[in-house]
Specification:
The protein has 263 residues and is α/β, with parallel strands linked by helices. It contains 9 helices and 10 strands. The longest helix has 14 residues. The two termini are 23 Å apart. Bound molecules: phosphoenolpyruvate.
Length: 263
């Protein structure tokens, strides 16, 4: 279903009216985690100022440590819905448990399945049946073939509104959190008709890498990027070191403008 063999035209997925697909480079930006109404609104305003047309933000956070901030849950979803109301930006947010799919989908414009759940087949089937677009991150240990098969689980349930997101894979390299596999973009686009975007924030894990990796994403033909921004990253409850700050936004907007999409 997701193979390009039976569907030669590359697909465009619309999220609250915003296209992700060939001919555009969609900027999705926002906080890694929803922490407070004020922080989420400020991050959304930063995102919009940089040219973002979709707001990201996690209310359910899949953390490596059980002692780390796990997200605000439904209270976080309510904050996101309020901020959507105030800014007009449709919401992309993660769901980590098949039991929460209905609840998260009742607030979200697009559901995100994260790298740690990329082969959670019950979750993939649940998001496939809920009638909302899905962003499927690549498992950090998954081959491209395994990633596309994971997408197939969603598609099998009747949902072809899937955006693939390359977010770095595990290698021997320790200078970055994960190694951004830029080759995955043209390879996945050759094998599948689905749009492919890149997450330069979670792959690199460092603020300084976000703009160079964004340039790489656009140069290699990605259909979009998803980027963390935070008004006060030093106080962030999750992944502060990778969040862009106010001072980075002009440069981000310039990068997005100056690197037109490959057609
Ligand atoms: C995220 O985007 O909030 C996230 C946790 O990303 P990943 O699943 O790629 O680590």
């Amino acid at each position: 279903l997701v193979s390009r063999d039976n569907h030669p035209e590359r697909s465009t997925v619309r999220v609250g009216g915003v296209p992700i697909g060939p001919g555009t480079v969609t900027l999705i930006a926002g906080p890694c985690a929803v922490e407070t109404p004020q922080q989420t609104l400020e991050a959304a305003q930063m995102a919009r100022a940089a040219g973002a047309t979709l707001l990201r933000g996690g209310a359910y956070k899949p953390r490596t440590s059980p002692y780390a901030f796990q997200g605000l849950g439904e209270a976080g979803l309510r904050i996101l819905a309020d901020v959507r109301e105030q800014t007009g930006l449709p919401i992309v947010t993660e769901v980590v448990d098949a039991h929460d799919v209905e609840l998260v989908a009742s607030y979200a414009d697009m559901l995100q399945v994260g790298t740690r759940n990329a082969q959670n087949f019950a979750l993939l089937q649940a998001v496939g049946g809920i009638g909302k677009p899905v962003m499927l991150k690549r498992g950090m240990n998954a081959t491209i073939e395994e990633w596309l098969m994971a997408a197939e689980y969603i598609a099998q349930r009747g949902n072809l509104d899937i955006v693939l997101c390359e977010r770095g894979i595990r290698t021997f390299e320790t200078a970055t959190r994960n190694t951004l596999d830029v080759s995955a973009v043209p390879v996945a686009q050759r094998l599948s008709h689905l749009p492919v975007i890149i997450d330069p924030s979670h792959s690199g894990g460092h603020r300084d890498l976000v703009l160079p990796l964004t340039r790489a994403a656009i140069a290699v033909g990605a259909d979009g990027v998803i980027i963390d921004v935070h008004p006060h990253p030093e106080q962030a409850l999750c992944d502060g070191p990778q969040a862009l700050v106010d001072g980075d936004l002009d440069e981000l907007a310039r990068v997005m403008r100056e690197f037109p999409p490959l057609l």
